[in-house]
Write a structure and sequence with these properties.
heterodimer, A: mainly alpha, 0% strand, B: mainly alpha, MetI-like fold, 2 domains, 15 helices, 58% helix, 1% strand
Chain lengths: 312, 424
């Protein structure tokens, strides 16, 4: 297995290099002169020259690319252009709040979606099944923005069940008090598409021969669904969950923005608003690496779920 | 091998008449016609596209920027607002001694929620607008009931008031940019403003229905145009990778894996950060240049499958060039995949455009889209003005539902083997 892991990581290198090149071309070639962004509206040529020298953008491109590679390896991207906070510091402090919301969200969402998918697929073709699917399709069509705006207004502002927004320093307080409404909204938005998808995965399994065999030898319906079918359907489900994992970090940015949660997603929006290139560059590269590692982890998990899978 | 093929110019031969069996598209259309849900959704989608074209040509909603109602005029079915100062006396100054601050539960009474704002708005007679640059605000805006008041006061300070009308030249420029020529003289016409509109008015008294039509034009156009760009890139690259194989395939696959290893929204935001120039075409480019990966993967697989088939070998034998084989012979046989995927992309891009514009990274301030409407609606809801939220959110939901259902039906009709396996 370790030989497999090492080979896979080795194969990732060209892609990683590609991501680095893409980000470099985007920001260093097309991004415009950062000195003008930094110096602000009122600036003299001398000041701009100074900033250019400090950032190294007056050097040839290959030197700049070298600097960028060095930054990625050492994790030292220098300071943010707008707040002067260290980029590594920003990433480290923003990760916690994001995970506080996202980890419970992902776990609850997957459990509910898988449970519902098994139930709906079991009664496939019935009125219940069709109603659930229609609700999912319509629910998916409403913009996530509308959900957030309405839920925040009704549940937090009008009814006062949750704080409108905010974030504290205490983990339990954050999780119970501030993260609950964001998690609730995330569930409402996230269950519909996942349920639709997982239902098709379960349907693919439910007509297989082994299900009939299990039934013939007298296995209970519950055991068939929860043990036999679920285990077989879990391979595509794992792929989907793992593939969604890194995107989730960014995908919840709207929720983080509305509820003022100081997480990664909100940081991305702030950085784009402020043209804070070092922060966006660092985030893009690291999230891309995380995506590739998540894909590898998904492949390793197949082996755990299905012994027939050969790691090649 | 290609060097050996002898290219001979065959004389154009007269087509031999023969009985034509129905083609893929005819069969698919027949299947589609029996599906009532598909036909209803197709009609809705077609109506939306017609609306987009009419609005783009200036036939409908041309005067969307004209301020024909009072500020936040409610929908007609609710009746006029219960504001103490009736809309006819817009220029009269009232000084209510109401404490400033939100009073929950005062859904339709704007004076209680935002007293100063209304007074100032009346003072100005709808003249000066807050600077549009301030609109995609910081996160504190949502809970700050005084935010709007402050903005009004600031714009008030910038615009010295004489006789209840703004004379600040900048304000007029802003208005011209935003509202076009129709807006001129709207300050003078403040007395003609209507107390209610069919589905209410926004902050500046613009008709929400006309605004929604204009917003639909922008959002649907961006969705369609970006899907076209992404499909073009994805299918051409996919065709090359699948057809040529070897190092071309390796190189393009590498390109694909680079793009797909960055989460889609992060990629869009990164490109948006770099492209500082704002415009409708900019978003089309951003979405098109980042969203081609799904199409690439599908078309590459199709070309891999098709390139070894007999009809392609036959085309090779009669001396068709590579380009001709790729696009004249193989492409028609994979075009249904392109169509279905394109249909999926339109919905995805409309959703992305709405989010981008909501955040202020999308359409410029003088263009209205569903996203920018939702941005305004977010603050309006705090004042109890729900109509713009319902109009933009509802219209979008109807279109996206119809488009998704039509896409599902289209896929089933073009590939009946997949029926019942509706994926994501």
């Amino acid at each position: 297995m370790w030989a497999y892991v090492i080979r896979r990581v080795w194969q990732m290198l060209p892609t990683m290099l590609g991501v680095v090149l893409l980000v470099f071309i985007l920001f260093n070639l097309f991004g415009g002169d950062p000195a003008y962004v930094l110096a602000g509206k009122i600036s003299n040529p001398e000041q701009i020259d100074n900033i250019r020298r400090q950032l190294g953008v007056d050097r040839p491109y290959y030197v700049q690319l070298g600097i960028f590679l060095q930054q990625i390896v050492t994790g030292d991207f220098g300071a943010s252009w707008s707040t002067n906070e260290k980029v590594s510091q920003i990433l480290a402090t923003r990760l916690g709040p994001s995970l506080t919301v996202l980890v419970p969200l992902l776990i609850i969402e997957t459990l509910i979606a898988v449970g519902l998918a098994l139930a709906v697929a079991y009664v496939r073709g019935s009125l219940t099944d069709r109603m659930v699917m229609i609700v999912c399709t319509v629910g998916l069509s409403i913009s996530i923005l509308v959900y957030i705006i309405v839920f925040q207004y009704v549940l937090a502002y009008k009814l006062g069940w949750f704080p409108v927004q905010g974030w504290g320093n205490d983990f339990t307080e954050n999780l119970v008090k501030y993260a609950s409404l964001p998690i609730l909204i995330g569930l409402v938005v996230g269950i519909a598409p996942n349920l639709r998808l997982y239902r098709t995965f379960v349907l693919d399994e439910i007509n297989q021969d082994y299900v009939r065999t299990a039934r013939a030898k007298g296995v209970g319906e519950n055991r068939i669904m929860w043990v036999h079918v679920l285990r077989n359907a879990s391979i595509p489900i794992i792929t989907h969950v793992m593939a969604a994992l890194p995107g989730l970090l960014i995908g919840a940015f709207l929720i983080e923005r509305f509820f003022s949660i100081p997480g990664i997603g909100r940081e991305v929006i702030l950085a784009v608003e402020r043209s804070d290139f070092p922060v966006i560059k660092a985030l893009t590269v690291y999230v891309a690496i995380a995506t590739m590692l998540a894909n590898l982890a998904a492949d390793l998990m197949y082996k755990a779920v299905d012994p027939r899978v050969q790691l090649k | 091998m290609n060097d050996l093929t002898i290219k001979t110019q065959l004389p154009a031969r007269r087509e031999i008449p023969h009985t034509v069996s129905p083609g893929l598209w005819t069969l698919a259309w027949r299947r589609l016609k029996t599906d009532s849900i598909a036909m209803v959704s197709l009609a809705i989608v077609a109506a939306f596209i017609l609306l987009m074209v009419l609005s783009g040509l200036g036939v409908v909603a041309k005067d969307w920027a004209r301020e024909i109602g009072i500020n936040y005029a409610p929908p007609t079915f609710l009746g006029p607002d219960a504001v103490p100062g009736s809309p006819e006396v817009t220029n009269k100054v009232e000084a209510p001694a109401v404490p400033s601050g939100p009073t929950p539960g005062s859904a339709f009474n704007s004076t209680v929620v935002d007293p100063i704002g209304d007074v100032i708005a009346e003072l100005k007679g709808g003249g000066a607008r807050p600077a549009p640059g301030a609109s995609p605000g910081t996160e504190s805006k949502f809970v700050d009931p005084l935010g709007d008041v402050m903005k009004e006061i600031e714009s008030q300070r910038a615009a010295p008031v004489t006789d209840g009308k703004s004379v600040d030249p900048l304000a007029d420029v802003m208005k011209d940019i935003q509202a076009g020529k129709e807006a001129k003289g709207s300050a003078a016409a403040a007395d003609d403003r209507r107390a209610t509109l069919p589905f209410g008015a926004d902050k500046w008294g613009r008709d929400v229905i006309a605004k929604t039509i204009k917003g639909s034009e922008t959002s649907i156009f961006v969705g369609l145009a970006a899907a076209l760009v992404a499909s073009l890139i994805g299918s051409v690259l996919g065709a090359f990778a699948g057809y040529y194989g070897r190092w071309v395939d390796d190189a393009l696959n590498w390109f694909y894996s680079v793009f797909s290893s960055i989460p889609y929204l992060l990629l869009i935001l990164a490109v948006a950060a770099v492209l500082q120039h704002k415009g409708t075409m900019t978003i089309v480019l951003i979405l098109g240049l980042t969203g081609w990966t799904g199409m690439f993967r599908l078309i590459r697989a199709e070309y891999l499958k098709h390139k070894g088939r007999e009809y392609v070998q036959a085309a090779d034998a009669i001396g068709a060039s590579n380009a001709r084989r790729m696009f004249k012979h193989i492409f028609p046989n994979v075009s249904h995949v392109v169509l279905v995927q394109m249909s999926i992309l339109v919905v995805a891009f409309i959703k992305s455009e709405v989010i981008l514009s909501f955040l202020g990274f999308g359409v410029p301030v003088d263009v209205v889209s569903w996203g920018s409407m939702l941005n305004e609606a977010q603050n309006e809801l705090l004042l109890g003005k729900w109509w713009q939220l319902v109009a933009a959110g509802g219209t979008m939901a109807v279109l996206v539902t119809a488009f998704s259902l039509f896409t599902d039906a289209l896929r089933d009709a073009l590939d009946p083997k997949l029926k019942g396996k509706a994926g994501h």
